[in-house]
Write a structure and sequence with these properties.
The protein is 38% helix and 16% strand. With 568 residues, it is an alpha+beta fold. It has 2 domains: 235 residues, no CATH class; 238 residues, Glutamine Phosphoribosylpyrophosphate, subunit 1, domain 1 (4-Layer Sandwich). Helix 14 crosses helix 19. Strand 16 and strand 17 form a beta hairpin. 54% of the residues are buried. The radius of gyration is 23 Å and the shape is globular. The strands form 4 sheets. It has a 7-stranded antiparallel β-sheet with strand order 1-17-16-13-12-9-8. The protein has a 7-stranded antiparallel β-sheet with strand order 7-4-3-11-10-2-18. The N and C termini lie far apart (62 Å).
């Protein structure tokens, strides 16, 4: 009996210690932060970091065969549309920031599509809808990614699109093993959009979504890629593909037309920046949300974050309250600049940040935050090459596998980005025919003394500007390396006012990853914050940094996803 009790106590003790001890993969490392998952990847000639290892390897193959970073980014993005259709694909949009080594300059690309010209707010009123549905034909906007590839290729590429799409065509026809996290999202999306035409035929094997390690093929996507490779941009926007999309959408009650496809154009845009403690952080201007990261950083720069320490209620509270301020402006001002005069320079100015910072109470969580007054599931990848070119590229179908609209025999899903419009006619982001919706996907870049330093991004909806700011703070304020900055436990605030018209009245809630202490959590509750545990919502990070002194690249990849950073 006594022996049995002792055995039970030993077992209970071992279980307790298992629950209390940090994870072995962190504390067993002999270098770096205790939460670091692995070392940075370091290479001289080229580096790629994507959310799926096969895509990373395709990027490296392109580099090794004489292609540049832009070529490799396009090839990797095309493969991700096959191997990770749960977060990307040619039915979605694309944004990129390119450091061009030849001109020593940053270039921004907005390859996001517009709403159908035949879709108006009155249409929804007639249908008795007070908001735009998340799935089905109505939230579909023109897919801009393919045009983005050709814009990048024509301006910076060195290889033909036939060469760049060849690896994806081969994998689509012959198959690839599905990775773990993507298998999970396949199953989740089947529950959301599996009832729509084409899902079973395109994305299942004998009626079931592919499981981890199972070989998956998409011959329809292979055929679509072949048409794009040989027929160019027009094959997608003015040829048979566009006609198929238009006909399918009409059959489903949608309004996206052949004319909407044929008239699509992307735009080169000037990236915008703020200086954070000596480093220039670059984002793209609206209709994306990139400048929210700059607004957050401008407020955080007014605090001594290092002295607070990362695991403190003071630090978490400051980050969250700065985010609430930026997101209040995001809800009011961020929209298509072709339809509004957006005060970007004012929003990202240091003077405006000082005014907004005065609204933060260090001891109490704000329940509601108004915008300032002014007169007047996604993939991210980054590639760098031996010439010094660097690409920061993000691409998405919006809600994982988008709208659920799968045009007949094309092998991909159309995005549901139009869900992001507001139906309030007085809102900056109000739905208008031929207008670009507010966008969440944002690439980022860092320069110092007008030289390239870092290309990075964190995929994941409204998570992105919060995490962009946290990555920068982790590296600059807390001295972390490139991998540690992504591995560090993250802070996520949810519930701010939104560009779709939702208003925060209760302060929202904070979600903290494992690694923040019980004391920090308790102290946040005392400041009036609501805490809520979530999983899978903290984003996916990839980054490349240039060490100009040693002439090497550092690469880092997200431990929360299936990704890989690799170089040669």
């Amino acid at each position: 009996m006594l022996k049995s009790i002792k055995s039970t106590l030993v077992l209970f003790s071992s279980i307790s210690m298992t629950l209390l001890l940090p994870s072995a993969n962190a504390y067993d490392r002999i270098t770096g932060e205790t939460f670091a998952s692995r070392s940075e990847v370091i290479a001289q000639n080229g580096m790629a970091a994507t959310s799926q290892p096969l895509a990373t390897q395709v990027a490296l193959d392109i580099l090794k065969s004489g292609g540049n970073a832009i070529d490799a980014a396009i090839a990797a993005n095309a493969l991700l549309g096959l191997v990770e259709p749960t977060g990307s694909g040619i039915g979605g949009d694309l944004f990129a920031i390119v450091w061009d080594a030849k001109s020593q300059k940053l270039y921004g690309l907005n390859a996001s599509g517009r709403s159908p010209k035949g879709l108006t707010r009155d249409y929804f009123a007639q249908k008795g809808l007070d908001k735009i549905p998340a799935f089905g034909p109505l939230p579909v906007s023109v897919p801009g990614a393919v045009d983005g590839w050709f814009m990048l290729n024509e301006r910076f590429g060195s290889k033909s699109m036939q060469e760049l799409l060849a690896p994806s065509i081969d994998y689509a026809r012959n198959g690839f093993p599905v990775s773990e996290v993507i298998a999970y999202y396949f199953e989740m999306n089947q529950k959301r959009i599996g009832q729509y035409p084409g899902f079973q035929e395109t994305f299942t094997i004998n009626g079931n979504t592919p499981k981890k390690g199972q070989i998956f093929k998409n011959p329809n996507l292979a055929a679509t890629y072949e048409k794009i490779a040989t027929g160019g941009r027009d094959a997608f926007y003015k040829g048979d593909i566009a006609r198929t999309i238009s006909g399918f959408m009409q059959s489903q009650g949608g309004l996206l037309s052949y004319q909407d496809m044929a008239s699509h154009t992307s735009n080169w845009v000037e990236p915008v920046s703020t200086n954070y403690r000596g480093y220039d952080v670059w984002e793209l201007p609206p209709n994306g949300q990139g400048i929210a990261a700059l607004q957050i950083l401008n407020v955080l720069e007014l605090y001594d974050l290092e002295s607070m320490g990362r695991d403190s209620a003071e630090f978490v509270h400051t980050v969250v309250e700065a985010k609430k301020l930026a997101f209040a402006d995001r809800a009011k001002f961020y929209a298509d600049p072709d339809f509004n005069q957006i005060p970007v320079d004012w929003l990202i100015s240091k003077e405006y940040a000082k005014k907004r910072q005065k609204l933060i109470d260090p001891n109490a969580a704000a329940k509601r935050v108004d915008a300032g007054k002014h007169e007047g599931d996604t993939i991210y990848l980054t590639v760098a090459d031996s010439q010094g070119n660097m690409v920061s590229l993000i691409q998405s179908n919006y809600r994982g596998m988008g709208s659920g609209m799968i045009p007949t025999d094309l092998g991909f899903v159309l995005q549901n980005r139009g869900e992001m419009f507001s139906l309030d006619k007085n809102h900056f982001n109000a739905l208008e025919p031929g207008k670009r919706p507010f966008h969440t996907i944002i690439p980022a870049f860092v320069t110092r003394n007008n030289k390239p330093l870092m290309s990075f991004g964190v995929m994941g909806g409204g998570t992105q500007p919060q995490m962009h700011a946290q990555i920068i703070v982790n590296m600059i304020d807390f001295g972390m390396n490139l991998q540690e900055a992504g591995d560090a436990p993250r802070i996520l605030h949810t519930g701010s006012s939104s560009p779709e018209g939702d208003i925060m009245t209760d302060g929202g809630y904070i979600s903290l990853e494992s690694g923040f202490s019980a004391k920090t959590r308790r102290d946040l509750l005392q400041k009036g914050h609501t805490l809520k545990d979530v999983s899978g919502a903290f984003g996916g990070y990839q980054a490349i940094m240039l060490d100009d002194k040693n002439k090497v690249y550092y690469g880092a990849s997200e431990t929360r996803k299936d990704g890989q950073a690799a170089g040669y």
